[in-house]
Write a structure and sequence with these properties.
With 398 residues, the protein is of the alpha/beta class. The chain folds into two domains: 205 residues, Rossmann fold; 178 residues, 3-Layer(aba) Sandwich (Rossmann fold). Helix content is 40%, strand content 18%. It has 15 helices and 16 strands. Strands 5-6-2-1-7-8-9-10 form an eight-stranded mixed beta sheet, sandwiched between helices. A six-stranded parallel beta sheet has the order 13-12-11-14-15-16, with helices on both faces. Strand 11, helix 8 and strand 12 form a beta-alpha-beta unit. The radius of gyration is 22 Å and the shape is globular. It starts with a strand and ends with a helix.
Length: 398
């Protein structure tokens, strides 16, 4: 017998990317009061994000530690956390799915690692991108390719409704996996409403602390994200080194994000990346520090070859940071005309754009204002409201 109307898999809650999506979605549900019948399935003992009574979306880190009461669940402020300990992409998760799905009328998978058998439980799947499939020949092993293809096909065929985070992802699902258009609902992701430009004196004091801690230059371009091959960071590094050697830019480059554990052939330079006078690599920093980096940067540079959405683009705009990015995949859909866009493979255009942003304060100010306006149309409350509408439609379908 089902005891929960909707179950949400939150095992990736503390990750970047999908974790950010989950945290934002939960904040939206909580703010709108739509979390009353929501059960969260994840790792017992994690810090579960709950929200202030005022519902303003502020995340409070409240540790939930086992053992729990009978039923292996813990309840705080109306939110249930139930145990789901299997690693994602594992065989074990398939053995653990049935007992969890049996407790729910509807299961929301925030990624395409869906249950192979869902029984009578309705299934909603959020698919952020199909990067693993698009770049399978360049970056994946045969085993990884087989898994990605099989699970994406399974997600498309078994889901009662698919949430795509962009129209581009929707098109990819239709083109590559023949997903029925009527099954897909596009719901854009949001951005934290608490992100803001820091007042000049507050920024000066905050940046002085960070500058001393990390030896950060005064003027810099910023990249934020994992250093994965499809992010095109290797091209950015090579172009930036060339510009510095030629004396065409005065600013430095700060890269914030972890490297992959392994890289395919041709990416040895990225694997061996270490900080120099002109390029600073910081694998991991605290979130408040990242906010200061955004505020201080001349511009965010996001040279990606492919994005399902592109949350860092919106984050930068929230902080009034000009954005230089590409025309690839969903990026134009997200940034509109509020960013300077070039072809992801056009090295000359990318270098020219870096030079312009380095030298042209009026251009940076224009992009700052456009970005602050553009970002207003993306918020987690709207993401949550539309997601709840999907739940309701699926639950009444026979």
């Amino acid at each position: 017998m089902t005891s929960h109307r909707v179950g949400l898999d939150i095992r990736m809650l503390q990750n970047s990317g999908i974790g950010t999506y989950l945290r934002g979605l939960l904040s939206g549900f909580r703010t709108l009061g739509l979390d009353k019948e929501l059960a969260l399935f994840g790792l017992c003992g994690i810090n579960l994000p709950l929200f202030t009574k005022e519902g303003n979306g502020e995340i409070l880190k409240i540790p939930l530690t086992p053992p729990f009461a009978k039923g292996d669940s813990a309840s705080r402020k109306g939110l249930d956390l139930l145990s789901f300990t299997a690693p994602i992409y594992s065989i074990r998760e398939q053995f653990q799915y049935p007992a969890r799905l049996n407790q729910c009328c509807l299961w929301h998978a925030p990624h395409y690692n869906v249950p192979l058998w869902k029984g009578k439980t309705k299934l909603v799947v959020t698919i952020h991108d199909i990067i693993h499939w698009i770049f399978r020949k360049q970056f994946l092993s045969p085993l990884q390719t087989a898994y990605a293809g099989f699970m994406l096909k399974k997600a498309v065929t078994s889901a009662d409704r698919i949430i795509a985070v962009s129209h581009h992802t929707k098109k990819d699902l239709m083109d590559h996996f023949h997903a029925p258009e009527q099954k897909i609902t596009v719901i854009h992701e949001g951005v934290d409403e608490n992100y803001r430009e820091l007042p000049p004196e507050e920024l000066r004091l905050a940046f002085e602390k960070i500058r001393g801690k990390y030896n950060v230059p005064q003027d810099f371009f910023l990249y934020v994200g994992l250093l994965k091959p499809h992010k095109n960071v290797l091209m950015l590094i090579r172009l930036f080194r060339k510009l510095k050697e030629q004396g065409k830019v005065r600013a430095s480059l700060v890269l914030i994000g972890r490297k992959d554990k392994t890289y395919p052939s041709g990416y040895e330079e990225l694997a061996a990346l270490s900080s120099t006078k002109d390029i600073l690599h910081l694998p991991l920093i605290d979130r408040p520090e990242l906010n200061v980096f955004y505020n201080q940067a001349l511009a965010l540079v996001h040279p990606s070859l492919y994005e399902g959405f592109g949350l860092t683009l919106l984050e930068a705009m929230c902080f009034g940071t000009p954005v230089l990015t590409t025309n690839s995949s969903s990026i134009p859909e997200v940034v509109g005309d509020a960013a300077l866009r070039v072809d992801a493979t056009d090295e000359i255009a990318m270098m020219d754009a870096l030079i312009r942003l380095d030298q042209d304060a009026k251009l940076r100010e224009s992009l700052r204002l456009k970005g602050l306006e553009r970002v207003k149309i993306f918020n987690w409350k709207e993401t949550a409201r539309k997601t709840h509408e999907v739940y309701e439609k699926v639950l009444v379908e026979k």
